[in-house]
């Protein structure tokens, strides 16, 4: 009996010890699992802390001073340029547009651009000659064979080369090259029909101040009269000036033909213009090789083509619209056209050649484009 009791007690002790061991192991495992979960939670929290919210990119706003008036191809193409800039930069670059000379004439906005108080400025190459002569060739009579030749030159390899020269000289980069009005300049006046250069003698014609333009007027016997574009209508109305040498579309859309009722169709000089970007704005966009700057250049090239197509339609219709307005539109005969060209050649020695405003090398390069 005692022996049985001893066996039972021994068995109970063994079972008791086994139970204690199992309980102790579970108790030990619980804290370990808890610590592992806590460690994992800490890592997750740490990871979240390290994840920084994506920084919102700053919007770059470029102010643009321009002379285009609403309702013209130039104005519509400019609006398209603004739209494309925002699209191609994913909204990082926006443009504030001030058309119709709100910020001043060409010279005013170029000076502001050079001083980095304005980011974009539109200026004719003739008016730009006040600040640099690099693009003076654009205004030389007889330099271009026709409108297509102008566009070919301004989209050739010469473009980037000339743009960098302008940037180096005045600190503003030409992002766009255009032909104002999409055609050669016509001679408008309020006095009489002009068929040949001799007929223009003693007319007072507005000049941009370009040396080339003034010399050309001298060959025609014209009195060069400096006047801002925005003052021209009033100037002709009051008789301070008799007319203007300008593209037919800009002359018509700015209502100059209301007071200058005589127009001579010429094909000697074209009126290219540039859209300049200030040096500070170029740097804001990452420099000339920067992604944002290149996006703006892409928008510029596309808007140039859009404007060209719009201009072609306006040019085709403008003579008839002028005639409906009572303007005498005279188209010189082939013989008379030769006289105009020959009269303009008198200024070649003054401006073309080594050491002159237009180097012989540049002249030859321009003539070679499209040949």
Automatic annotation (TrEMBL):
**Cross-referenced Pfam families:** DctP (PF03480)
* Species: [Clostridium] asparagiforme DSM 15981
Matches recorded under CDD domains: PBP2_TRAP_Siap_TeaA_like
Q: Name the residues that span the membrane.
A: none
UniProt biased composition (Basic and acidic residues): 36-57
- Hey, what's the signal peptide range on this chain? 1-23
Q: Its GO biological process terms?
A: transmembrane transport
* Record keywords, A-Z: Signal, Transport
Q: Which InterPro entries match?
A: DctP_fam (IPR018389), TRAP_DctP_sf (IPR038404)
**Entry keyword Transmembrane helix:** no
Reading the lineage from the top rank, the first entry is Bacteria
Annotated stretches, region: Disordered: 28-57
Q: What is this protein called?
A: Bacterial extracellular solute-binding protein, family 7
Question: What PROSITE patterns has UniProt attached to this entry?
Answer: PROKAR_LIPOPROTEIN
User: Is Signal a UniProt keyword of this protein?
Assistant: yes
What family classification does the UniProt entry report for this protein? Belongs to the bacterial solute-binding protein 7 family.
